[in-house]
Amino acid sequence: MPLWVFFVILTLTSGSHCSPTPSLPFRMRRYADAIFTNSYRKVLGQLSARKLLQDIMSRQQGERNQEQGTRVRLGRQVDSMWADHRQMALESLLVDLLQKHR
Q1: How confident is the model at residue 64 (pLDDT cuts 50, 70, 90)?
Q2: Signal peptide location in the record (predicted)?
Q3: Which of 29, 46, 48, 88 could join 20 via S-S bond, C-beta 3.0 to 4.6 A?
């Protein structure tokens, strides 16, 4: 539920925050204000906790992606080195065969 919907519902259920009804005693209006303030603090706390959790999870995901990228690069380097080694071995074999043929 979007945050603004929560505040609209909370405002409607606890009475108008800006212009309290004159039939309610002062103590009741302050109680409604306190409920609104406490609810607002809880929502802010939940939002900040959710943001912190998302930040932590995105950092961990970034680290995993970085590790996987490093592994892939290392694998490509090993594959490249192996291909170079095989090519050099093949070239030396061909040179040997050509020398024997002459």
Answers
A1: confident
A2: 1-18
A3: 29
Task: Render pLDDT for 1-52 as a digit per residue (tens, 0 to 9).
Answer: 566 666 666 666 655 445 555 566 777 777 777 777 888 888 888 888 899 9
**Where do the structural domains in the chain lie, given as residue ranges?**
37-101
End-to-end CA separation in angstroms for the chain: 85
CA atoms within 13 A on the CB side of 27: 0
d(CA 29, CA 69): 59
This model's pTM is above 0.70: no
Rounded Cα distance between 7 and 19, Å, is 16
C-alpha span between 34 and 9 (Å, rounded): 16
Per the listing, tokens 């002459």 go with 102
